Amino acid sequence: MRPSVYIIGAGPGAPDLLTIRGLRALQSAQVVIYDRRVQPRLLDLAPASAERIDVGSAAPPTTEQDAINFLIAEKAREGHIVARLKWGDPFLFDHGAPEALFLHEQGIAFEVVPGVPALVAAPAFAGIPLTYPGSGDTVTFIRGFEDEGRNGPAVDWESLARLDGTLACFAGPQLLRRVASALLEHGRPAAESAAFVIHGTLSSQQTVTAPLGELVARVEEADITAPGILLVGPVIGLRDHLRWFDNRPLFGRRVLVTRSREQAPELVDLLELSGAEAVEAPVLRIEGPEDAAPLEQAIASLPSFDWVVFTSTNAVAALIGPLLADARDLRALAGPRVCAIGPGTAARLLRLGITPDIQPADHRAPGVVAAMANAGSLRGARVLLPVSNGSANSLADALRHAGAELTEVTAYRTITEEGDAHLGLYRQMLDRRIDAVTFTSANTVRAFVEIYGTEQSPDLLSGTVVATIGPGAADAAAAAGIRVDVATEGATVAVLVDGLIRQFRH
After folding, report:
1. In the listed set 84, 116, 148, which residue is the last one of a domain according to the structure?
2. Tens of pLDDT, residues 463-482
3. DSSP labels, 186-244
4. Which region among 44-48, 188-192, 415-419 has the lowest average model confidence (pLDDT)?
5. Phi-psi sector, 454: left (phi>0), alpha (psi -120 to 50), beta
6. Coil/strand/helix, residue 79
7. Residue 47 shares a structural domain with residue 150
8. Is the pLDDT of residue 80 over 80?
9. Which residue from 3, 39, 90, 164 has the highest number of Cβ atoms inside 10 Å of its Cβ?
């Protein structure tokens, strides 16, 4: 019998620590019921049509837990596939087992998908192994709480203090104080190595190490108020040799990604590989043209053109998508030569099995026209240029000046993406909580200015590193009065990230 409910361990924080089995279950869901500590980007992995329900704390009071149990069962009885996303692992110090037992009693089929526990992952990302030869033969997980109103764990502290190995406990700052005091009072050495890790596996991760007797004071000195993982044992001494995550070049930097949601993943992945926290806030979205007739006419006439010039990956998708959707195939592009501006555009064409005839090294209009002219005279040549709505296209002017018979067609629209998310980001930028803002096209710059204001935008970004890809975005920023710190000539997100790394190293 296929399960109606999947109880899925969402892992400790980093979205890519979700298991493959968990991903498959989440992608099949019609309803997603999730805890507050589950990362928002995990919710994006569920179908767009799925209902999303936030049920708050990962450890709710009993009365609220009863309501959650009934909610899960109700959605399953309505015939929905339910994904119950739970922080960490659902069967480790969590209410996954009671929820599963309730479903069993209700006769509702379920499946439990294990997750990576925070008590295992956070130490690993801090460079602290839970075990190491010669560092004791036990690992003890102590039940803890982030809610400071709860009592401490009821354990035999005297026996626990005598164990030779590693102790791990999830705790808010007040519980951290109680657990550390209990261990010290019952004989754990004050000089023993200890650590406290908050926001484990995320780019905001922070690790404080100190002797057990000094740890609480060091945490308070660091002004840490978030819950985290307490670790006690000789393995903490290996951190200086094994730390790998918080040594990355952009670690701890918060970088705003303004790219459209469809195009953002590549940049987000590279930023996170470099240690940054990517803050996704698309300033525009891509839609089809209001009047598709001119585009359809151009597609139908493709064999009659001498050139098709693709200026972006969006242009590729906008032209090739309708072509393939209408019982036609890529043989329509066998006649015209293809010009791809930028390596990303060329790569997108190559993935579709189309090899560009030319890829101009200079992406500005004069350089593109010169590269095309070197392949043959443009005088009288029929050129198709698919563009976005309202684009001020210097390339079109240059092609006409070279004598080309140009067909410039609106293949897609860029729509400014306003919303509540930008209100919160405005405050963050004012408070200098965003370290860098990235613009990958002139359109993203213009949309940003439209959202945040013509006069306000330069001031808002005055204390933030601004990075652009290609001359178009840099020119648009200059026109808006926005100072650019990292202006990359190469039109790839890899070059952009490299530029940010160099900037922050200085």
Report:
1. 116
2. 899 999 988 889 999 999 99
3. TT--TTSEEEEEESTTSTT-EEEEEEHHHHHHHHHHTT--S-EEEEESGGGGGHHHH--
4. 415-419
5. alpha
6. coil
7. no
8. yes
9. 90
Query: Where a domain ends, among 217, 242, 267?
Result: 242
pLDDT at 365 over 60: yes
Burial of 296-318, coded b for 16+ CB within 10 Å and e otherwise, reads eebbeebeebbbbbbbbbbbbbb
* Gap between the Cα atoms of 221 and 28, Å rounded: 46
Secondary structure (H, E, C), 29-45: CCEEEECCCCCHHHHCC
**pLDDT at residue 328 in the model:** 64
Query: Does 12 share its domain with 100?
Result: yes
pLDDT at position 59 over 60: yes
Domains of the chain: total: 4
* Cβ atoms within 10 Å, residue 47: 13
CB 50 within 8 A of CB 82: no
Residue 75 lies in a domain: yes
Q: Are 500 and 465 in contact (CB under 8 A)?
A: yes
DSSP state of 250: T
As a whole number, the mean pLDDT across the chain is: 90
Are 266 and 311 members of one domain? no
- Per the CB < 8 A criterion, the answer to whether 41 and 21 are in contact is no
Q: Within this chain, do residues 262 and 154 fall inside the same structural domain, yes or no? A: no
Task: Give the residue numbers spanning the domain of 20.
Answer: 5-116
Check residue 457 and report its DSSP letter. Answer: H
Q: Which domain CATH number covers 61? A: 3.40.1010.10
Read off φ and ψ for residue 260, nearest 5 degrees. -60, 155
